[in-house]
C-alpha cells in the first residue's frame, strides 16, 4: 500500500510507530505516548527499600528542608519550639526507617505531625510523606494514598509524594488515579525521569488494553474506504479472489457491454460478490458469500476466503478465523486459495501479537506453495516487524526472483536494508540503501510505495526538500491516498515548523478519506502539542472508532488517556507541558 504507516520492528509486546516520533520532532510529550517508547531503556530493578529517588535503604525525607536545631530530644533541649520538637521526632523516625523498623518510624512521624504547627505546610507535608514511605514498606497501600494526599494538599507540587501515591494507586489497581499522578510527576520533572516515564507507559498500556478489549468486542463493524480496500488487494499478486470475473463467468450479452458492470452468468452468491467488488459495492459482499457457503455451491472455498478477507477488513477477526481455518483444511481446494488463507491468518496473528503462530502460518504457506511470490513478500514484512532484517531481505529477494516486476517487494527490501543501516548507525550501508531507493524509483516510476518509503528514509536523514518531492510524486500517482498527505503534513512540521501547512495537509487527508484513522491520530497528536487537549481527545476518539484491530485500538486509547490525564492535571494543579 502506498504511503502506508511506517513499519516498526517488534519491541517487547508493542509495535510503536517510531517514525511519528521522529517526524514531529523532539521532544514529544506524554500526550503523544510515542517518543519515550522509542528512546527508553530498561530500568534496573528497585531494591526492596527505596525512596522516590531510588536511594537504597535511604531516609524517606531526603531532599527536604531540615528544621532548625536538629534532634531536640537527643540534645535535651526541653524549651525548643514546637517545630523543633517535630523535626526531632522526624529525625528519630528517619533512624528507625533506616534500620528497617517501620512501625516505630510511623509512631515518630505521627508524633512529628501532631507537634508541627499547622501553618508550617512544607514541614507538615514532609512528615506525611515520610510516614507514607514507612507505610509503603509495610505494603499498607491505602494508608500510603491517604498520607500522600495530605502531603500534596499541603504542597501541591511535591514530586516525591505524587510519585509515591501513583505507585500506591498502581498497587490498588486504581489506574486512572495512578495515571493522573504520574502525569503530574512527568510534567514537573520535564519528562526526564526514567522511572516515572516507565510507570506512565505501563499504566497507559494497561488502560489501553482494558478499554480496547471491551470496546472492540462490542464495536459496530465498519467498512474501510474504497481506496484502502483497493490498496490492500494490490499487495497480493496470486490472490484468486481479487481477480476480475473470468470470461466464462459473464453472460454473452455482458461481454459486449463496454464500460458497464458485467452481470454474472449463473446464480452464484460468490460470483455476485465478485461483481460487487468490481462495482466497489463492498457492503454486500459478505452476505453474498454467505449465500454461496450455505448453498454448498461450487465456489464454496473461494466464498469462504473472500468472506474472511472482508471480515478482516472490517476488523472482525473472530468471524474471519473460522472461515480461514476451513479453507486451510480443504486439501482438495486450489493450493493458491489455501496459501492465501495462511498468509491472511498469519497477518491476523501478527496483529494479535502472536508472532509464533504467525511465523508457523507463513512457513506452512511456503511449504504448500513454494512458487507463490505473495508468501515471501508478506513474510518479509513480518520479518521486518520481528526485527529479523536479514531474513526479511532473503524473503524479498525470493519474491523478486519469482516476480521480477514486483515493485513493492523491491521498495520494501530497500526499506529493510535502510532500517538495518539506520539502527546500526552505519553510514556506508545507509548510503547504499539510499542508492537502492533511487534505483527502484528509476526502474518503477509508477510505484507510489517506492517514493513513500524513500521519503521516510530521506526524512530520517534530514533531506527534507527531497523528501517533500517524493511525497509530491506519491500524490501525483495516487491523489486519493490520504496517508501520503498525513506524512507530507508531518514533514512540514519538522522541516519548516509550519504548523498551519501541516494541519492543512492532514485536514486534506481527512477530506479525502474520512475513515483514515492515521489522519485523526496524527491530528490528535499535534493538538496535544499545541495544548488543545479537548480537541486532541476528540480526534483520538474518532481514530478509536475507526481502528482496524484491537491492538491498534489499545494504542489509540493510550494516547487518548494520556491527553485526558493532562486535562485533569491542569485542572487540579495548574500544570501544563510546553506547547508548540
Question: Mean of the pLDDT scores?
Answer: 85
CATH architecture label name of the domain at 82-218: Alpha Horseshoe
Taking Cα atoms only, what radius of gyration do you get, to the nearest Å?
Answer: 30 Å
- Name the overall outline: elongated
Question: What structural class do helix, strand and pairing data support?
Answer: mainly alpha
CATH superfamily of the domain at 82-218: Tetratricopeptide repeat domain
Count of beta strands? 0
Distance between the termini: 32 Å
The CATH class of the domain at 82-218: Mainly Alpha
The major sheet is characterized as: none
DSSP summary: helix tally: 29
Tell me the β content.
Answer: under 5%
CATH fold-level label of the domain at 82-218:
Serine Threonine Protein Phosphatase 5, Tetratricopeptide repeat
Low-confidence segments, ≥5 residues, pLDDT <50?
6-58, 61-77, 251-264
What does this structure look like?
It is a single-pass membrane protein. The chain crosses the membrane at residues 20-39. Pfam families: TPR_1, TPR_8. This is Mitochondrial import receptor subunit TOM70. The structure is a single chain. With 580 residues, the chain is an all-alpha fold. Among the domains are: 82-218, Tetratricopeptide repeat domain (Serine Threonine Protein Phosphatase 5, Tetratricopeptide repeat); 225-243 and 266-369, Alpha Horseshoe (Serine Threonine Protein Phosphatase 5, Tetratricopeptide repeat), CATH 1.25.40. Helices cover 67% and strands 0% of the residues. It contains 29 helices and no strands. The longest helix has 25 residues, at 194-218. It starts with 17 loop residues before the first helix and ends in a 7-residue tail after the last helix.
Amino acid at each position: 500500500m502506498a504511503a502506508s504507516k511506517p513499519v516498526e520492528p517488534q519491541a517487547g509486546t508493542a509495535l510503536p510507530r517510531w517514525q511519528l516520533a521522529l517526524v514531529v520532532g523532539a521532544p514529544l510529550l506524554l500526550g503523544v505516548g510515542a517518543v519515550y517508547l522509542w528512546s527508553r531503556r530498561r530500568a534496573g530493578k528497585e531494591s526492596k527499600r527505596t525512596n522516590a529517588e531510588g536511594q537504597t535503604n535511604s531516609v524517606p525525607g531526603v531532599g527536604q528542608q531540615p528544621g532548625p536545631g536538629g534532634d531536640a530530644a537527643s540534645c535535651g533541649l526541653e524549651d525548643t519550639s514546637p517545630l523543633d520538637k517535630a523535626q526531632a521526632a522526624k529525625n528519630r523516625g528517619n533512624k528507625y526507617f533506616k534500620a528497617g523498623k517501620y512501625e516505630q518510624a510511623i509512631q515518630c512521624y505521627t508524633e512529628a505531625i501532631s507537634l508541627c504547627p499547622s501553618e508550617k505546610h512544607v514541614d507538615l507535608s514532609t512528615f506525611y510523606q515520610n510516614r507514607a514511605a514507612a507505610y509503603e514498606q509495610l505494603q499498607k497501600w491505602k494508608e500510603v494514598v491517604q498520607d500522600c494526599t495530605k502531603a500534596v494538599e499541603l504542597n501541591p507540587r511535591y514530586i516525591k509524594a505524587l510519585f509515591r501515591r501513583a505507585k500506591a494507586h498502581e498497587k490498588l489497581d486504581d489506574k486512572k488515579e495512578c495515571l493522573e499522578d504520574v502525569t503530574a510527576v512527568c510534567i514537573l520533572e520535564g519528562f526526564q525521569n526514567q522511572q516515572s516515564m516507565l510507570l506512565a507507559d505501563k499504566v497507559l498500556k494497561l488502560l489501553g488494553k482494558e478499554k480496547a478489549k471491551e470496546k472492540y468486542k462490542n464495536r459496530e463493524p465498519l467498512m474501510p474506504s474504497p481506496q484502502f480496500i483497493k490498496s490492500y488487494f494490490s499487495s497480493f499478486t496470486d490472490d484468486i479472489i481479487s481477480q476480475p470475473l473470468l470470461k466464462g463467468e459473464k453472460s454473452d450479452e455482458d461481454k459486449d457491454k463496454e464500460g458497464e458492470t458485467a452481470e454474472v452468468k449463473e446464480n452464484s452468491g460468490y460470483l455476485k460478490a465478485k461483481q460487487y467488488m468490481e462495482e466497489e459495492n463492498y457492503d454486500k459482499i459478505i452476505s453474498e458469500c454467505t449465500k454461496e457457503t450455505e448453498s454448498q455451491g461450487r465456489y464454496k472455498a473461494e466464498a469462504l476466503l473472500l468472506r474472511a478477507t472482508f471480515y478482516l477488513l472490517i476488523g472482525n477477526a473472530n468471524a474471519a478465523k473460522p472461515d480461514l481455518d476451513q479453507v486451510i483444511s480443504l486439501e482438495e481446494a486450489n493450493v493458491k486459495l489455501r496459501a492465501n488463507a495462511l498468509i491472511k491468518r498469519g497477518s491476523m496473528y501478527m496483529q494479535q501479537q502472536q508472532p509464533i503462530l504467525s511465523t508457523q502460518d507463513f512457513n506452512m504457506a511456503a511449504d504448500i506453495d513454494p512458487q507463490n511470490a505473495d508468501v515471501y513478500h508478506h513474510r518479509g514484512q513480518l520479518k521486518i516487524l520481528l526485527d529479523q532484517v536479514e531474513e526479511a531481505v532473503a524473503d524479498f529477494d525470493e519474491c523478486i526472483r519469482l516476480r521480477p516486476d514486483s515493485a513493492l517487494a523491491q521498495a520494501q527490501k530497500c526499506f529493510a536494508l535502510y532500517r538495518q543501516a539506520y539502527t546500526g548507525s552505519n553510514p556506508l550501508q545507509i548510503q547504499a540503501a539510499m542508492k537502492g531507493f533511487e534505483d527502484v524509483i528509476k526502474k518503477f516510476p509508477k510505484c507510489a510505495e517506492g517514493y513513500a518509503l524513500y521519503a521516510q528514509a530521506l526524512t530520517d536523514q534530514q533531506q527534507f526538500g527531497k523528501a517533500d518531492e517524493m511525497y509530491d510524486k506519491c500524490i501525483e500517482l495516487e491523489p486519493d491516498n490520504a496517508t501520503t498527505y498525513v506524512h507530507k503534513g508531518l514533514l512540514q512540521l519538522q522541516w519548516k515548523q509550519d504548523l498551519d501547512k501541516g494541519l492543512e495537509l492532514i485536514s486534506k487527508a481527512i477530506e479525502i478519506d474520512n475513515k483514515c484513522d492515521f489522519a485523526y491520530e496524527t491530528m490528535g497528536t499535534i493538538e496535544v502539542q499545541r495544548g488543545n487537549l479537548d480537541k486532541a481527545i476528540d480526534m483520538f476518539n474518532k481514530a478509536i472508532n475507526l481502528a482496524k484491530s484491537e491492538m491498534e485500538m489499545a494504542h489509540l486509547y493510550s494516547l487518548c488517556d494520556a491527553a485526558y490525564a493532562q486535562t485533569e492535571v491542569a485542572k487540579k494543579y495548574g500544570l501544563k507541558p510546553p506547547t508548540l
